[in-house]
Design a protein that fits this description.
Blueprint (H helix, E strand, L loop, with lengths): L1 H31 L7 H30 L3 H23 L11 H17 L5 H10 L1
């Protein structure tokens, strides 16, 4: 039971941490009309992974809570989508001096992370409440 939520959250997080730097690198190389920078993806993997660990922990705890409190998987995923977007934007907001104005160009980085988080939330299978209760009964 616990491993289902754990694997789900880790899958969503890893998808975002790995795919987003690739998407940003491809976009930047397209926008600049030059080959992708070889140093950009590893740096983004390192910093994106490190800065998103608190979000991973919060998302994991809230997912565990919601799975046990909501009636169906769709409700859980709707809440996780909202929470995921807020948690994804939070580091960019902090790095942008606690401002919603995009003075630093952080929006270019936010969208790939936000889209991959939301896509991961809806793509990966999360056990339903009924399945969890059945697993607990077998237990």
């Amino acid at each position: 039971m616990k491993t289902s939520v754990l694997f789900y959250v880790l899958s969503v997080w890893l998808t975002s941490v790995i795919l987003s730097p690739v998407i940003v690198s491809l976009y930047m190389s397209w926008a600049e009309n030059s080959p992708p920078d070889a140093e950009l993806v590893p740096l983004m993997l390192m910093w994106g992974g490190a800065l998103s660990v608190p979000s991973l922990l919060i998302l994991g705890m809230l997912c565990h809570y919601l799975v046990h409190r909501k009636n169906n998987v769709k409700d859980v995923k709707i809440w996780l989508t909202i929470i995921g977007i807020v948690l994804t934007y939070a580091p960019f907001w902090v790095l942008n001096a606690f401002s919603f104005a995009d003075n630093s160009g952080a929006t270019v980085l936010f969208w790939p992370y936000g889209v991959t988080i939301v896509a991961g939330i809806w793509f990966y299978k999360l056990k339903g409440v009924g399945e969890l209760r059945t697993d607990e009964a077998r237990g």
